[in-house]
Design a protein that fits this description.
Belongs to the FGGY kinase family. Residues 13-266 form the Carbohydrate kinase FGGY N-terminal domain. Its main location: mitochondrion. The chain is an alpha+beta fold. Helix content is 34%, strand content 20%. It has 16 helices and 23 strands. The chain has helices at residues 57-77, 120-128, 136-141, 150-160, 162-169, 178-186, 199-202, 217-223, 259-266, 326-335, 344-352, 389-415, 432-442, 454-465, 493-510, 530-548; strands at residues 12-18, 22-29, 34-42, 54-55, 85-92, 98-101, 111-112, 173-176, 196-198, 208-209, 214-215, 232-234, 237-242, 252-258, 275-279, 283-290, 301-306, 315-322, 359-361, 379-381, 422-425, 446-449, 484-487. It has a seven-stranded mixed sheet. Strand 17 and strand 18 form a beta hairpin. The longest helix has 27 residues, at 389-415. It is globular. Residues 517-538 and 540-549 have low confidence and may be disordered.
Length: 549
């Protein structure tokens, strides 16, 4: 029997979406932005010590090759010729740090994941050496010194892993975030692999000057990082190299974006003032600020959003980062015997319809925006004899929404113009109870795209638009609007504000949990930080006052 004829299609674009919990490869039609097929592989995390989070770089790479192969098989089953794939983009979990030997291709240590807390004491020591009146790190990078970013992870590896130290001394070591590792390996590895990153990923290392758009010598000296191990900085949309093996051998890799930047592009938030929130392992709210850096006065990050071509301008964003969103559901599934799969939490929460006064602050990795308190730890409070698993499930989902409310409030204060709706994406948005809760707590509509794969779509757009590929037009007149489902608030503002005020009380109780004695014996609690103490106390006064006025 003759093979079925291959479907006649125009050029296609593939996207590697390498996240914290899974890897996927997706194929899109640039003419319609339609998702044609995808394949997903779960990625294991390792927890060798309390607060440590690692992944195997070789397992990450293998998952990418497996996803590409399986997705291409699925295309074949649809009678679509894989030769139609004209470009590949790579989007990735940001900040996660890998060091490898450029001559053998072997990782010198596991990938240290963005959630990892082992560098807390390093952060405290480095912070003491910076003048409050002249914080050159924040001025140059837009970032606070935190366990979150790559520079302190790389500093730890250099200080504590002999294999890394020796490889640097011998001129064999190179560093990269996950995008750099994947692109280097896929373009040949030890046989001419391209060692590069894009501006969005570079801006998350705390070694990159977001004004000069270059690695910064002063920052590298401060963190003890040799500049020779850093990747070359490129735009987010250009041909970096060709795939050197596998079913897509010869296809150019021409797009690279950190996952949150990719979602911003995929949601078509390409104009100043447009914003989106992605709900994955963590939760990340980004607002496009155009070609200007906006410095936050309310605990947000200033970051590079994207640069869609070598000759194109760099666009910036304000970002609110929440460490634990979908991860709280995974924690419940793995550590409490109340659900067997992540999707079951929606049913439990729906049965409860309320947390019955139970509040869950999932500060497993400290608190990110707007507090930046690494000493915070998770708490469940407001428990009574009536509290059950349904209420705890509801409180866990509500916690994701309260954290988003905190960073939305900070963003509204920084931008001066409150958002009238919030565009959302990410795996957790499949949970309709969560989406309705989010609208209720924000008191504004939540808009969810019917095509949820906006992160992969964003990097596919960047790859397809690259010079030398040019199969995807980013001209606004050629971009069709994203079709959305709308969730309207269903509770009154007074009830929403009351629940939010109680949440703030719970957050206050989670802070300063892990104490490290300072050398001069001073109290290391949050109130030793005047800015943070003022922020927490003033927020509490305003919210509690609003509740009873």
């Amino acid at each position: 029997m003759a093979d079925a004829p291959k479907a006649v299609l125009g050029p296609l674009v593939g996207a590697v979406d390498q996240g914290t919990s899974s890897t996927r490869f997706l194929v899109f039609n640039p003419q319609t932005a339609e998702l044609l097929c995808h394949h997903q592989v779960e990625i294991a995390q390792e927890f060798p010590k309390e607060g440590w989070v690692e992944q195997d770089p070789k397992a990450i790479l293998q998952s990418v090759y497996e996803c590409i192969e399986k997705a291409c098989e699925k295309l074949g089953q649809q009678s679509i010729d894989i030769s139609n794939i004209k470009a590949i983009g790579v989007t990735n979990q940001r900040e996660t740090t890998i060091v490898w030997d450029k001559f053998t291709g072997e990782p010198l240590y596991n990938a240290v994941v963005w959630l990892d807390l082992r560098t807390q004491s390093t952060v405290e020591n480095l912070s003491k050496s910076i003048s409050v009146s002249n914080n050159f790190v924040k001025n140059k990078t837009g970032l606070p010194i935190s366990t979150y970013f790559s520079a302190v992870k790389l500093h730890w590896l250099i200080e504590n892993v002999r294999k890394v130290q020796k490889a640097i001394e011998d001129g064999r070591a190179i560093f990269g975030t996950v995008d750099s590792w994947l692109i280097w390996c896929m373009t040949g590895g030890i046989n001419g692999g391209v060692h590069c990153t894009d501006v969005s990923n570079a801006s998350r290392t705390m070694l990159f000057n977001i004004h000069s758009l270059q690695w910064d010598e002063e920052l590298c000296d401060f963190f003890g990082i040799p500049m020779t191990i850093l990747p070359r900085i490129r735009s987010s949309s250009e041909i970096y190299g060709l795939v050197k093996s596998g079913v897509l051998e010869g296809v150019p890799i021409s797009g690279c974006l950190g996952d949150q930047s990719a979602a911003l592009v995929g949601q078509l938030c390409l104009q100043d003032g447009q914003a989106k929130s992605t709900y994955g392992t963590g939760c990340f709210l980004l607002c496009n600020t155009g070609q200007k850096c906006v410095n936050s006065e309310h605990g947000l990050l200033t970051t590079v959003a994207y640069q869609l071509g070598r000759q194109e301008p760099v666009y910036y964003a304000l970002e609110g980062s929440v460490a634990i969103a979908g991860a709280v559901v995974s924690w419940i599934k793995n550590n409490l015997p109340i659900i067997k799969s992540s999707s079951e939490i929606e049913k439990l929460a729906e049965v409860a319809g309320t947390s019955y006064g139970c509040y869950f602050v999932p500060a497993f990795s400290g608190l990110y925006a707007p507090y930046w308190d690494p000493s915070a730890r998770g708490i469940i409070c407001g428990l009574t004899q009536f509290t059950n698993k349904f209420h705890i499930a509801f409180a866990a989902l509500e916690a994701v929404c309260f954290q988003t409310r905190e960073i939305l409030d900070a963003m509204n204060s920084d931008c001066g113009i409150p958002l009238t709706h919030l565009q959302v994406d990410g795996g957790m948005t499949a949970n309709r109870v969560l989406m309705q809760l989010q609208a209720d707590i924000l008191c504004i509509p939540v808009m969810k795209p019917f095509m949820p794969e906006t992160t992969a779509l964003g990097v596919a757009m960047a790859a397809g638009a690259a010079e030398g590929v040019s199969v995807w037009s980013l001209d606004p007149k050629d971009l069709s609007s994203v079709q959305m489902e709308k969730f309207e608030p269903q509770i009154n503002v007074e009830e929403s504000e009351g629940r939010y005020a109680t949440w703030k009380k719970a957050v206050l109780k989670s802070m300063g949990w892990v104490l490290t004695q300072s050398p001069d014996g001073r109290d290391p609690s949050i109130f030793s930080s005047l800015t943070l103490g003022f922020y927490v106390v003033s927020s509490m006064v305003i919210l509690i006052g609003a509740r009873y006025m």
